[in-house]
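One record is set out below.
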Amino acid sequence: MLREYDGALNFATDTWMSPNHKVYVVITIHFEHEGMPISMLLDLVEVAKSHFGMNLASVFANMLKDFGISD
């Protein structure tokens, strides 16, 4: 559905560190389909490195590629 969608895709992310010091990022997508707003959880990823901007950008770019929506 996302690969074929011709409209704007909007994303939201949130990051946090667990009590055992593992860093996670969640990525959600938001768009309109047939006049109805749609929100979906795309991925929950453990970030292997610290949650600095470059590492989070890399996780986000990889997720876009995995879902085939990087264009």
Summary: Residues 24 and 46 are 4 Å apart (CA to CA). The radius of gyration is 14 Å.
